[in-house]
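ok so I'm stuck.
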Amino acid sequence: MNEIILNGITVSVFNGFDDLLGFVNARKTLLVAVNAEKVINRDPLIKKIINTNIGYLDGVGPVLAARRKGAADACKIPGCELWLKLVERFCHTKSFYLLGSTAPVVEETARKLRQEFPGINIAGVHDGYLTSEALKKEVISDIVSKKPDVVFVAMGSPRQELLMDELREIHPALYMGLGGSFDIYTGRVKRAPKWWVDHNLEFAYRLVRQPKRFRRQIHLVRFLWLLLTNKL
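replied:
not stuck anymore, here's the structure
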């Protein structure tokens, strides 16, 4: 593993899943997926969270930028695949807590994980609708009491990063933000077909399927400009 700086963000560069999993095995930190949107994010708190934890390359744009900065072995590590690799590697040695999405989705995620990984220790599950401070404190207390080794938080960015940062101060563990990965895992949301993924066009597939994402994709234009003008 080596590190590079992209627009003030420290990104950890790994040469594949095994490299990353071996690195985080004994660490209590946050795993944050770094895509183009996060690289150009202006929020100093989000940058601080990434810089004091582990930001990994989860976007073709940052991968290209990393290679231009000399990290020739930089490769994309999709978070929607990484969390399952992490489960597969540690399902017999670590305990897990699932937090996020809706109650039916997170509960189905837990059931499917138990079917695919017999013996897995899922310490607890809770949906991501923490609609009051009291409910949030209740979930935090549940996590603290059950002491999971790994906590998956599927709430979308930046909400999940902010919550994970708060949680780690109370209960040190390995945290990973998953966005919509529970929905993909349970089949409620379809991931891009293999051809789109293999050709680094997954973002384009999502845009075609969900045109309302257009405004969010505008950041790609700014990222491309910074990349082409060597300002990252």
